[in-house]
Amino acid sequence: MMTTEPRLRIAMQKSGRLSEDTQKLLKRCGLKLNVSDRRLLAHVSNMPIDIMRVRSSDIPGLVMDGVCDLGIVGDNTLEEAALERQLIDQKYDYVRTTGLNFGGCRLSIAMPEEFNYQGIKSLNGLRFATTYPQLLNRYARENGINVDFCLLKGSVEVAPRVGLSDGICDLVSTGATLEANGLKEVEVIFKSQASLIQNPAVLEPSKQKILDTLLPRIQGVMKANE
Ligand code: PRP
Ligand code: MG
Description:
Elements: E1 8-13, H1 19-28, E2 41-43, E3 49-54, H2 59-64, E4 70-74, H3 75-87, E5 95-99, E6 105-112, E7 127-130, H4 133-142, E8 148-151, E9 167-172, H5 176-180, E10 183-192, E11 194-198, H6 205-225
Bound molecules: 1-O-pyrophosphono-5-O-phosphono-alpha-D-ribofuranose and magnesium ion.
């Protein structure tokens, strides 16, 4: 009888802010895989691991639902998904196995340069374009203001200029995109980096063994990068 050895399934971003660093990390951990092709479930040839390449916003749900054992995702995407899933009664538990020391950025509120900003209260009643309505909502609630939002999945910085919103709530890394679009950062609402997350259920022993091999390697790569 043929038995198939269980394989650890890890979700990662297919393309975008974290994909290059994620691929680099896996490579430096000694995983041999060919991610240059168009295959979305990549077989690691020298370890019982499969890499599933998906949209970043799908990674938290895939891990929380147990489709993938692990995922590499930005804390911003993770927290947004957890809040949203909680609201609609879907599983939103996960374990943050380790932070990964890359993909650092902040989620900030930014306003047109000419906006007269005098503290959080000046944002009350305004409308914001964002990909992160849950994080924005929580921030507004915690700070006793009411905000309205419109959802944009990208190019968020264009919204005030075209009359879609008063301001934006989006990721800032170097600040170049804000500057190029005549916006100034007024509040940081969430600090983010990439994390390795895991389904909260206990892994079957054979998969745990694979993770026990992988995790020290990840930690070794991070140490070397310090
Ligand atoms: C990301 C993010 C910001 C920008 C921040 O967008 O949404 O717009 O990068 O980086 P910076 O502060 O270094 O300019 P991305 O370029 O990935 O495009 P998208 O939002 O259209 O997906
Ligand atoms: Mg952007």
